[in-house]
Specification:
Radius of gyration: 18 Å
Number of helices: 1
Shape: globular
Helix content: under 10%
Strand order of the largest sheet: 12-13-9-8-14-15-19-18
Order of helices and strands: EEEEEEEEEEEEEHEEEEEE
Oligomer: single chain
Distance between the termini: 31 Å
Amino acid sequence: MSNAFKLICIIFFVSNGYAAIAQNNFVEIKVIGDQRCISSNGSPNHAMGQFPNRGNPNRFKSQNVKICVDARPSIRGRIDRRASGSGITITGIILRPGTADWFDTSSPRGFSRDSSSGWNLEGMGPKNTLGLDRENAHVDNRGLYHYHGVSTSLVTSLNGTLLGYAADGYEIHYIGEKAQSSWRLKNGTRATLPFGTYDGTYNEDYHYVAGTGNLDECNGAKINGRYVYYATDTYPFFPRCFLGQVSKDFKRR
């Protein structure tokens, strides 16, 4: 079983000071044995923002991306939180909502890779600290374009609700407001530096409150006896924990 398609989309426009460009998008999806492998050139199927920008010093680079996940996933009975990303879209773009940055008063930028503060920077925070474009994505130090939140252009292009595959192989769907996360902002203020009101700047500003939405802690639910994850417009945006076996391609290094 295989599914390959090539979408050529070269666009450049400037509107209200926003520049965007998209290059050739290529993706191939194959199921071989018990693995589903998605290969792409790392370019999205829509216009992307201009990089570098004020919050992101990196430059986009088209590159070979290959991710393999379980084609027949099963629930293992325990939650796995040790993954370097949420999954990959059917267009071959990595879903990586988390960051490796932490609040750090000694850093000129206010954050660094030093985790001692205990406050992990949220990529979709209210100040767009990491220079995300209009598709809730940016590029890392390797030039890899990846999503921190739901891309409007991506979901508009979908033929159905399947957005991609999670790190453990389960499907990720987008159904808009019909899927409601059960993660909520905490009430009150932070007890330690950086202090201030819980506003979503850090992952620790949120907590899981079972039953406040229709999704579980990992942003998933069973539909007609079948477990799937959902991409949501609110935190955590994509699954950040997994019920199945996480692929080695998403194991933290």
